[in-house]
Amino acid sequence: xxxxxxxxVPAAPRRRHPQLGPPLLVxxxxxxxxxxxxxxxxxxxxxxxxxxxxxxxxxxDHAPQIKVGAFLLVASATPLAVSAAVLSRRLxxxxxxxxxxxxxxxxxxxxxxxxxxxxxFAWTGARLASDASPALAxxxxxxxxxxxxxxxxxxxxxxxxxxSVPGLLGRLLPRPVAVxxxxxxxxxxxxxxxxxxxxxxxxxxxxxxxGTLWLxxxxxxxxxxxxxxxx
Length: 231
Fold this sequence. Notes:
Keywords: Membrane, Transmembrane, Transmembrane helix. The chain crosses the membrane at residues 24-41, 68-88, 100-123, 143-165, 177-200, 206-223. The chain is an all-alpha fold and 231 residues long. It has one domain (25-221). The chain has 7 helices and no strands. The protein has helices at 25-41, 52-61, 63-93, 100-126, 134-169, 175-191, 203-221. The longest helix is centred in the middle third of the chain and has 36 residues, at 134-169. It is elongated, with a radius of gyration of 24 Å.
């Protein structure tokens, strides 16, 4: 007696879940918190037009405060770099290839480096002795401002543009958010004119604070996966 053989039933294909990658809002909020703390601690920083004697006096009178601010500034560079890396990866996951992801990553790395250098120059200035040269104090303050001011703004503009352009063209971000990002990126590029004309310094806070708000909105609104329509 023979038994009929039953054909093997093929196993149901496993559904692959998209790799969502690390969260974006976490490093962004850490960066924002450190930035707010730095601004609060360094509210009395002398203007770039202050004399070397005034800068040296401020460094001597507020050395502990300046060192705390320097720590916060250097510390904020890490979550900013992480945010840029996650943004770059998120763009690739959404099907955005170079140059968008590469520009975002490079801009974020340069902006984070600018913050770190600015904090290091500020920390060095806070360690000056009372008999130090006012010219040296002014030079260190200029280096801290150059890297953390227009230097940061110009490089952060790359990060913002690297996300805003594909966010607008690919409809990955709400149009107002993407357009705002492009406007901030243009302002950041123009802020580099501060090195030639001091009057352009007013553009730096626009990028520093406007870019921070844009980064929060982008972290909350940028999708992790692209929604495909079914025909």
